[in-house]
Amino acid sequence: MEVVMIDKKNVKLCNSLKKTMKFFLFGLSIFSVLTLVGCRTMMTGILNPKGVITYEEKQLFVDALALMLIIIIPVFIMSCVFIVRYRASRKILDYQPNWGHSILLEAIWWGIPLAIILILGSRTWTMSHKLDPYRPIEGVGKPMLLIQVVALPWKWLFIYPEQNIATVNYLEIARSEQVKFVFTNDNVPMSAFFIPQLGSQIYTMAGMQTRLHLIASADGTYEGLDGQYNGDGFSDMCFKVKVVELNELQQWFAVVKRSGKKLTPFVYQKLIKPSIKEPVHYYSSVVSNLFSQIMMKYMQTTTGMPTQWEHKKPHY
Q1: Complete DSSP assignment for 122-191
Q2: Full-model pTM
Q3: Coil/strand/helix, residue 204
Q4: 286-303 pLDDT, tens per residue?
Q5: I need a labelling partner for 17 at 20 to 30 A (CA). Which of 85, 100, 111, 157 fits?
């Protein structure tokens, strides 16, 4: 009699624990959903695209996710079904000792993943070539704005060669106008230029030139950053990108031209010294062929003599 009473108490305790666990898991699920809802207003990067390239990248990401969910969702559903259907306490037994193979099931769990891999591979290959950063964006004619970018320790120098102006840690471009960036490094390890809401990341290296084409599709101010660890000031190597109408950009060019401060060789020598959280600077003029000189000073032969390309302009 005493043993029966103990068993009943254990059963009640187990049932109570099960109910408590169910309520806990339900509450945890609701809390998780509520925390995800708050991400909407702070959404950045490719999940909140403000450029032509980023929009295409988001579409590729969504397509890839949807294709992979075709496999993942059934797996989770079957996991729950198997737990319920083949539990030890189930009264109706489903026992088939002579079953061992099904052509239909084999075709499903091999054929569907294979088809998804082929579709995903084809889509990724096509978009990788379409979104090549060196390739001008289709459907947008010339002229395009040219900006020379130099990664310095730990700041960004932006040179507008056609306007003969420059800025530090601040970039201004026009909406719906294609921008062609060319990059190099000076006095800092390899860096990575990245504006998450506008487009692709591109690496910058000393003595080398990389390129990137972008189009901003919405006015606003966006964050740019360095995506490659390159020393003490890496985390603060950020800049602002302001997207405006074309006429506003032209007015901004005129304002910078009247600023009076010039980017001379002496000023540049100060800029290449390491500094953290460098404030924004504007320069009304830039020393001739500065970008070429920065590149060429790293392109020396073993004898220390200039290479045959030193007196040539870089190819954009």
Answers
A1: HHHHHHHHHT-TTSPPTT-PSP-EEEEEEEETTEEEEEETTTTEEEESEEEEETT-EEEEEEEESSS--E
A2: 0.79
A3: strand
A4: 999 999 999 998 886 444
A5: 85
